[in-house]
Amino acid sequence: MEKIKSLMNRIGVSEEAQSDVLNSYQCLSEKGDIKELKETSKKIMEDFNKEEYLLFLGRINAADNKSKVHPYMVACIFILLCATYLENLFVKRGIDKKIYIDSISDIWCKMEECKKLYNVWGIFASTWFWGLFAMEIFKLGRLQFQTAHVWFDECETINVKQGDNALFIHIPSDGALSPEEVVASLKDAYAFFECKGNVPFFLHSWLTQPGNENIFPKGSNLRWLYEQFTIFKFEDDNFRDCWRIFNVEYNGNPDSLPQETRLQKNIVSYLKNGGRMGCGYGVLLFDGKNIFKPEIC
Ligand SMILES: CC(C)(COP(=O)(O)OP(=O)(O)OC[C@H]1O[C@@H](n2cnc3c(N)ncnc32)[C@H](O)[C@@H]1OP(=O)(O)O)[C@@H](O)C(=O)NCCC(=O)NCCS
What we know:
Blueprint: H1 2-10, H2 15-30, H3 34-47, H4 50-62, H5 71-92, H6 97-104, H7 106-118, H8 130-133, E1 137-140, E2 143-149, E3 165-170, H9 179-192, E4 199-205, H10 221-227, E5 230-236, H11 242-246, H12 262-272, E6 278-286, E7 291-292
Parallel strand pairs: 3-4
Antiparallel strand pairs: 1-2, 2-3, 4-6, 5-6, 6-7
């Protein structure tokens, strides 16, 4: 318990959420459930076993557990336990501890998202964390970067082929995102991944769907970010990422969505005018100093 308490302090988990985690941990201990979580997290992190990680999460989410702790909270405790083992892997690979703490601070972002969406302290996006545990995703400055195989085939004009390893950007929901932070993060990533020449960075997100000039306010951080990317593909997913903006799942009725921020108002009006929300594929090139927009045919 001390290890996850210390970890929560290091990543800035609020007192209220910490106390919920610790009470749940206690509850799981009393019912004898914590032993399995501890042993499984240790084994999975030692064996680096993605399949076992996903299977175990599946069992957590399906469980009607005796302790009456919410499955999202059980998943959160399991992820915190796994994260305590990750620190050693960073040390072994000679990676700065700050990068470890910054990377796993995503646990707190995901806990806040879970609270906003389901009113439960816990983690629903639990499968996502394998990328961090497998050391494929690192937070460098404000942004996260993932090395992954390219699964699309539209980018041959910028010398990226399906199956190549490439860098993907992810944006944690921990506050505003200024252009300066984006450039600083890209510079950190360029150095961290020992890049050379013009390097493509991909963003697969609602932020890079075509038509966002209609919903991102002029002069905003979002608009600036959007304009840095060449968008080459779009998947209409009936607004699967609605929760990221409205803290609710989309039920198909724009009028049911809250309209507090300019972005929310613009999206509601866009949807009412027949606009579709989904996931776009964007790419930018970075040479270590400057961003370029590539041409893709
Ligand atoms: C990307 C992100 C960090 C940008 O935030 P930002 O820098 O504050 O954005 P801007 O300054 O350009 O905001 C412009 C307007 O949009 C609003 N806005 C921005 N992001 C918003 C969000 N996620 N939900 C609701 N409103 C949002 C702002 O409040 C502002 O409106 P206001 O002036 O009425 O308050 C933010 O949208 C975010 O955290 N998103 C969730 C994470 C995410 O979606 N990641 C991508 C995963 S695929």
